[in-house]
Amino acid sequence: MAAIFPQKSAPPTKHLALKRWVSDMATLCKPSRVVWIDGSEEEKKRLEDEAVATGEIIRLNQDKLPGCFYHRTAVNDVARTEHLTYICTKKKEDVGPTNNWMSPKEAYKKAGAYFRGAMKGRTMYVIPFSMGPVGSPFAKIGVEVTDSIYVVLNMRIMTRIGQKVLDFLGAEGEFTKCLHSKADLDINKRLILHFPEDNTIWSVGSGYGGNVLLGKKCLSLRIASHMAKQEGWLAEHMLIMGIEEPNGHVEYIAAAFPSACGKTNLAMLIPPEGLKAKGYKIWTVGDDIAWMRIDTDGALWAINPEAGFFGVAPGTNSRTNPNAMATIKKNTIFTNVLLKKDFTVWWEDSDEPPPEEGIDWQGRPWRPGLKDEKGQIVKAAHANSRFTVPASQCPSISFRLEHHHGVPISAIVFGGRRTHVAPLVYESFSWQHGVYVGATMASERTAAQVGKLGEVRRDPMAMLPFCGYHMGDYFAHWLEVDKRLEKKPKIFHVNWFRTDEHGKFLWPGYGENLRILEWILDRCNGKSQGVKTPIGYIPTPESLDLNGLHLPKETLKKLLEIDRFTWIQEMESQKEFLSSFGDRLPQEIWQEWEEQNKRLQE
Length: 602
Ligand code: OXD
Ligand code: MN
Prior knowledge:
The chain is 28% helix and 22% strand.
């Protein structure tokens, strides 16, 4: 024990099962010491100094970027590796066709071999963390053990960590056991394993946020979706934002978009001039994850379980997201962006022109126009380079982020990145139809996943990589929620990414998206007009406030067009996808598909 806990004092908890688990993990990974994270400022400073000394992180220019640090991951470790991500349940059929499956026995054995002795010569940090405000009825506790200070520093930003969490956990509280080791960062020995039946996550061989900040995708989505199914709530890949109306009333929406489709930008939107003048204001509650429960008032209430943003850097600038730019001026960890000579950072499509020189995300000297051996332009920052920053620094942050009961949701918005097919916005006919709309959502692949960019994939409710159980059962769970909801949010679908015949975006996006949200909320309050189409209600041209936008009538027509021919093809592709769930696809979803198909054929 002395070798494992060479600290002055014993582990700061009375939780025997937790102490035993940490001790077992230390026996497996063989670190030289175990340090329990208390979450204090002194500890933060100590860890930063140590990680700077070893080169794990680089201290940035403290005059220009106070409290900011820089980190590079391994070149083959820059995005989530979905093909190495598994759900490990006793029965294979429980994970469905959209997840990789491994039996718990095989998974523990295989990864156990990678973890064995993996922390030799390193420190094992024990991070108690809370997803959701500590003590909130929504909150779930996890404990992550890791051999990476980068992980500790990121978890400090993304979650609530330390002694207060242990105190809340007490001697017997439930917690998710999260084990992480960088090991030797070998992609051939990388595994991201989820054991929903054991409330356990094991991640080995990676240092990329989405794979190693285990409170985020692994706990808050894959494990939590499983818990939510058992406990009757929803764990979703959704932003949450408040829209303050001219009369001061704030309405909240939750919106699901696949990774890297602008969720962070939408969540922090600044109203365009016309709507600002009307008195609209946006409050950011979350940019990635929503946990939603039906409360005693019969309405759907949501919290953002995270405390920080892990946002994509390239493309973030004062035009696309001024609030994010203001947020990341201090206390930010930048990963895989360009390091400038003056120890500040840069990325493609940022505010400043490219610097004359710098060190790129791979640690190599870089200058604008540099080409590789194949003659391709070398990017300064990786397309999935990130910033990690406390949500509290965001100028538009809602004080409700810390509210134990969260916010009431008026509308749920699903969105895809489609160049054709889906109109700018439409409203589903009912909750059941809305679940079908979410179930058949599709998008083009982005840089947040390893794979071929641009390829269209179905991504139901943006949960394809994150649903911790059979998606047929997941749709059934959404339908089940309907039965208990008394105040039902309306369900919408949006597509900001429609293009013309030259591939140019038809809709300006960003702040202008508020015009669509305004229509959505007006629909929820029975204040705006819709036209019935075979796929749902679309706005009448007059019901959208386009004041100051100068959008040609013809463009608006194209944006709202529902081309029956393309949609009939779309229905066939949906049918193929839905069939993959076999008899676990609820009949109600087939019924919605059939009725919509009929409406389109009429
Ligand atoms: C993310 C993702 O990082 O969805 O949020 O990949
Ligand atoms: Mn995400």
